[in-house]
Amino acid sequence: MGRSVSGGCHLRASWLSGKTRPLEYRVAQLEALGRFLDDKKEEILEATELDMGKVRGAGIWGSLNELNVTLNNLCHWMKDEHVDKNLLDSAFIRKDPYGVVLIIAPWNYPIHLFLVPLIGAIAAGNCAIIKPSEISKNTERLVAETLSCYLDNDCFAVVTGGVQETTRLLENKFDYIFFSGSPPVGQIVMTAAAKHLTPVTLELGGKNPCYVSDTCDVTNVARRVAWGRFFNAGQTCIAPDYLLCSVEMQEKLMPALRAAITEFFGPNPQESPDFGRIVNDKHFRRIRALLCSGRVALGGQTDEAERYIAPTVLADVLPSDPAMQEEIFGPVLPIVVIANMDEAIDFINARPRPLVVYAFSCDSKVVNQVLERTSSGGFCGNDTLMHLMLSSLPFGGIGNSGLGKYHGKFTFDTFSHQRGCLHRNMGLETLNTPRYPPYTQQKLGLLTTTFEVKRRGTCTLL
Ligand code: NAD
Which ranges carry the Aldehyde dehydrogenase domain (predicted)? Predict the structure, then answer.
């Protein structure tokens, strides 16, 4: 195990002590997280900038919003849910914490992506071990060195390290594992979890298709797509990964995309304070190698010393080109030409299910058709990334893009076991007589009448 703020073995003892269960404890820890965000605001931004280059606009407000939504609603979410019953007793769903949970985070939004699940884990009454990404090393160091000053060290620990350390960490039995990262590592995590029958949430990645129909406001599409693709230099799991459109739309989009890129990042995006850098040399080289796909219509400049790749649009990309073989996770937007919406839908459905499908059209029937005839973790019509901003929407993948969901109340639910509970009356034993042998026709009739569920709308008289 790598550097650990406070070990980790004692977490199970803390969990068993029941310390994390009371509402007051949960609120106190969540408020401490709020203080962490507030006190360390500048250091967080500095560390993220060192790791990721300039990412103005990302900030910490997303995590703060999740925190506030949780604090505002926690006492309501925690309440037992009373359910329909056909017995004279109390039947309810208890929102039980799982126990000791593990949160493994990626590097692309290194604070937000461990903090949001941690908020839910604490809110639901769990102990937690957090494993930030070793790739965003400045943020990892900051979290490892400072989070313990805010959270209860009996119940929360940060474990640092790379593949080797995480492999060893995963040998332990956890009560829940929440993983964000790539699909191949998701498989490794799920395999390790299966050994202990540990439930998992897998927030994974992949290629998000974006269909642009022939009837749309080209300027608006270009601005919304360019923002979603080039935010954080394209290192966003829900970024539109490639466009599907007709050859005519490709022609119309090119000047509009050029205008949007210049409007956002100026004539030389390398000098823009709002355009990020690629996280490390390995990813820089991987993304640069994708630029041979189709033809470079916009951008294409690179600077290895700075790990800079210009906002780039590739035209006439073929499904067999390198850019279409893997998740791009960089500031490169390939356009694949298709004949019409049906072909776009077939293209999407012939590939692994994405984290999100995007569709642009002035005709809502077209947007609805794409929604209706494809399958993905989420869907956003006529914009990009914005579905993520609503904590009232579940966020998560399906198939290759993941398993489970979070954000807002969904995070609380993810980290809570819905415990079905029946609390019966100790007396009234005569009411139980029909269920005990020896059975008679009369007893069986009574039992059926008591427990039978009738199909609604069926009339037995006619
Ligand atoms: P990654 O899968 O390489 O790493 C994620 C975490 O897993 C890191 O903490 C890392 O230390 C650990 N890890 C890496 N290899 C491991 C191994 N062999 N065994 C055990 N643990 C291992 O992902 P990444 O490169 O950090 O992030 C990029 C990927 O994450 C992209 O695919 C992106 O789409 C996805 N992502 C998804 C979401 C989401 O919410 N769905 C959010 C952000 C990123």
Answer: 20-417
